Every structure is written in structure tokens, then in C-alpha cells.
Amino acid sequence: MMIKSHPGESLLYQYASGDLSAAMTLVVGTHVDMCKTCRQTVCEIEQKLCEENLDALVGVASTTMSKSQCDQMLEAIFASSACNKQAHQPNEILSLEGRRFTLPRTLAHNSHRIGEWSKLVGKLWRAPLTLDNGNQTNLIYMAPGAKVPEHTHKGQEATLVIDGVFNDEQSEYRDGDFILLDPSRTHTPETQDEDCLTLATLDAPLHFTSGISRLLNPFSQLFFR
Amino acid sequence: MQMVSGRTSKRGSMTTTQTDAADKAAELLSKIAENRSRAAFSELFRLFAPKLQSYATRQFGNEQTAMDLVQETMTNVWHKAHLFKPDRGSPSTWIFTIARNIRFDLLRKNKKRKDDISADELWPILSEQNDSLDDGYALDHDVLMQEISFYYAKLPDAQRVVIEKIYIEGKSQQEVSDALGVPLGTIKSRTRLALKKLKELIVDDD
User: Fold this and answer.
1) What is the pLDDT of residues B140-156, one digit of tens each?
2) Where's the ChrR-like cupin domain (chain A) (predicted)?
């Protein structure tokens, strides 16, 4: 299946440089797991970054390491133990509402960070991902026929379809599609006959814009934090 | 913030010197992985520590933090050399991605709390798990067989010989390594570079 919605090259560049937030790195990285084209682009960017930063050695260090510093560091390295920090086994199966989903690699490596699922308005479920202080990253599960009330974003929202299909006013999004929305866009995500599991991160709470759902605004933090 | 200019796939083919340097580093890494050779690691260290120090000093503007990055990066290289895959990328790119991860963590060290996510979880490049990612460099087999005869003649000799033996004579990389008396890691990196070069030739020709 073709993935049609990708992160832009500047976002991939920031991802490969390590300049994105942890949350955005996770969402972009999970897309890269699912997308052969972006994986190749990231490989090429990493190679280019390496050529610029490492291969083309430009001496900016005011003092390069002395022989004794080198020997000291080598000794410390040989004396170090191979600490295998990997306390958490990746778990790539996620079970929810009688469905089993296979998580892509980067997400599977962070399965221990997936919190409790809670039911939201409509046919929506949410589980927070605990990444670091102040993050707002969630797995959102939309059952068939679910609808998120129309809203805008105070900040940027990145959404990645892990499995299934949803649509908004603009388009339809399937497995691997990466959608970046800025504050000016309003949209109403919904599912039809199929369900949909997405990974989403946003840097400010949602702001609901239509009718009775505006009443949700004071509480939107509780829903989509 | 630098931007990437132009199409990424046209990006530089390596010069002979770079290829030699990459072969050398790949050979050292495989000696470290297979024999825990301290001599090989010391040689690799002398090649990369000054480059890493220069990169880190530019990133942090702080000599001590820069030295921390050098030490942590090279410590990972010492313990994880067996995870380097010569057919996935060059040794220096692999070492650069390790340094990138260390930098990510060092930048967050001050505000980091115990359970906060670390770079190794975000880019699991040093994971021992056998993750099943298909190789982004693999070419479509049919296209390869049709096109390769037209293009492989343009490859540098060292790469062409390897490609001939693998794709025309049907030898395994290990067999080619034995036949030429060249380390397996070198064969793998030559295969990768040759396939990349071929792809560029094919794309440029379209």
C-alpha cells in the first residue's frame, strides 16, 4: 500500500539531526519505520550530516586531545562494562477492544510507556504515552463511526495512522500517513466503516470550535492531554 | 538550521580515498566485534576521537561536555561493534548516529528525570533485538537483473569484481570474501556502495 502523506524533508532533516522534541521524534520515527521512502531519505541525510560534521574535520576544539588524554580515555573505555540498559522488552502487540494491532519498531520499543486506556466522548479511546515532562502524546483509537468534534489547534499537531483509516474534510488517511496540522486549520476527523489507531502529539490543547462541543473547551485538557 | 538542498538521491558518490577509509574502519570494527581487539579499537579511536571532539565542541561550546560525548560515543562503539551492519551504511555514518543520540541525551541531562525517554529508545540503532526492517538500499530484483549489465562496467574495479561475483556468478558474500582474501565487512560495504552507485547511474540515465 502506498503511503501518500509524508513529513517534509526539513522535518526529516531535524529528525536525523536530533533537533526535534522527544514526542515529535517518536512520531516521525514511527512513520520512518513504516515508510521505505522516508527511511532511505533519512539514511541519505544521516550520511550527509556525517560528511559535514564528522568527515570534513574542521578544528574548532581549542585544544585537541593530548596523547595522555587519549590513553586515559582508552583505559576508561576498556575498563567500562557493557551496560545493557534495555530493561524493557519491546512488545509489538497491542490489544484493545477485541482488536490486535502490530506496533512499528520505534513504538514497540516504547510500549512500556503506554498508559491506561480511557474512554472519551463518542467512540474514542485514548492512552497517554509518558515520554518526558510536559509532553502531550497519545495513542487514539477511533472505533468505526467515531467522530472527533470540529476543532483547531493552539499549537502544531502531528498525527500518524498506525492501522486503519480515518478522514477529515480534506482527505482520507491510511496506514503510515503522517499529517502535520498548524493552528490555522480546523478539522473534524472521523471514521466510517473501519476503525483507526493513531499516534498523535500536540504542543497545546485542542480548541473545539463548533456548537455544543465548545462546552468541551474548559475540559479539553482532560481529553487530549 | 541548515536545509537540505536539492534531490537527496543525487548526493555524492564517494571518492576512492573515502572508500578506502570506510573499508579500513569497517575492517577495524569487525576485528573489534570478533576478537575484542584492543589494538584495532585504539586505531579506530585515533581516527574518530578528534572528529567527534570537533563536532561536539561545535555543538556544546564546552570542552568538558565535548569530551563526555567523545567518551560515551566511543564506549558504545567498543561494546556494540557487533551491531554495525556494513551493508546498511558506512562506519562513520554509524558512529555519527551514535554521537547524535549521545548529544540528544546530553542536551537534556539537566532537566531530565529518571523515567524520561532516552535517545536509544527513540532511535533503537543499538538494540540487540533483531528488528525486521527491510533494507532500504535493496533494489528491485528484476530491474537489477535487466539494467545491471549495462551499468556495472562503469563501476570502480574493486566494486565491479564484487558485483560480478555476487550477481553474475551467484556467490555469497562470504565466498567472495574467501576468494578475494578480503574481509567480509569490506565485501559488504563494497556491495552497498556499488548498489548505490548503480542506482545513481540508473536514475541519472532516466
Assistant:
1) 444 444 555 667 778 88
2) 116-200
What lies within 8 Å, CB to CB, of A74 at 6+ separation is B41, B42, B45
CA dihedral B12, B17, B19, B24 (to 10 degrees): -150
Global ipTM: 0.83
Q: Is A116's Cβ below 8 Å from some Cβ in B?
A: no
Q: Which fold has domain A116-224?
A: Jelly Rolls (2.60.120)
In terms of CA atoms, which chain B residue is nearest residue A81?
B79
Could you tell me the residue range of the domain that residue B53 belongs to? 16-122
- Coil vs helix vs strand at B40: helix
Q: What is the pTM of this model?
A: 0.75
CA atoms within 13 A on the CB side of B164: 12
Nearest CB neighbour to A29, from listed B1, B53, B123? B123
The conformation of residue B103, written as its DSSP 8-state character, comes to H
B146, B94: one domain: no
Same domain, yes or no: B106 and B171:
no
Spell out which residues of chain B touch residue A41, defining contact as CB-CB under 8 Å.
8
Instruction: Please report residues of A whose CB lies closer than 8 A to that of B9.
Output: 40, 44
- In contact, B175 and B164? CB cutoff 8 Å: no
Q: Is there a contact between A54 and B99 if contact means CB atoms under 8 Å apart?
A: yes
Provide the residue type at A42 as one letter: V
Q: What are the start-end ranges of the H helices in chain A? A: 9-17, 22-34, 36-50, 67-79, 105-108, 220-224
Contact (CB<8Å) A57/B51? yes
Residues B100 and B147 in one domain: no
Are B117 and A22 in contact by the 8 Å Cβ rule? The answer is: yes
